Amino acid sequence: MIVGIxxxxxxxxxxxxxxxxxxxxxxxxxxxxxxxxxxxxxxxxSMAVLLRVxxxxxxxxxxxxxxxxxxxxxxxxxxxxxxxRPSLDRLExxxxxxxxxxxxxxxxxxxxxxxxxxxxFIRWFQSxxxxxxxxxxxxxxxxxxLQEIGQPDMIGYTASLKYRFVRSVRxxxxxxSGESYRQFRIIEVYDLETxxxxxxxxxxxxxxxxxxxxxxTLANSDEIRRGRCNELLIGAQACxxxxxxxxxxxxxxxx
Length: 255
Fold this sequence. Notes:
Elements: H1 2-23, H2 25-37, E1 42-52, E2 54-55, E3 58-63, E4 70-72, E5 75-77, H3 85-90, E6 94-95, E7 110-114, H4 118-127, H5 134-148, E8 163-175, E9 182-192, H6 197-212, E10 216-220, H7 221-226, E11 228-229, E12 232-234
Parallel strand pairs: 1-9, 4-12
Antiparallel strand pairs: 1-5, 1-7, 2-3, 3-4, 3-10, 6-7, 8-9, 11-12
């Protein structure tokens, strides 16, 4: 009888272990790669948030100045605060140096860490401490990008916008073609809330900018998958507006 009870408990424990392992398989793969395969390798990390603005099967895309003639969704890289420096120093985080450096690119959560630091870096990021929230990142990026596409008069409408979480995509760590490092990214996607008349009007103004500005466009899902809208190129990150899979290689950036 005792043997039967022990066997039953062992079987239950095995089922629970397998269930937990399966539900967290992506995290386990990341830990395995980081601690065994790429422990001493360079890992490029990039934490970003994208905004999905869509209507009638078309998605709003803005010109991305660091990938010439390329368009992508509103949004960008999350920034960390000065208070995060001690934590990031312990993780041996090194900011990525940009050839076309600009003041607004400081404190981006885009840089390099040793592979052994990746699990701790993910835990730090998920804690939300000493960094922008996803919503704050979207608000800041949208203000900056409206200025860049020549629509500064619309910035005032962004303060009241609300956002709804769509998905979080984890990519990597995987090898990057032509580079000596692996790359790990977390990309969060949000929709605009349009539950009020004011929010609906703000969305319509953003879509109107896509029709009227030569630094913005509207593209359908087939064009996003192909990476081209007429003569314009569409960045691979736009694929995350459609789903969790990376459908194309990233295009080379000037930064």
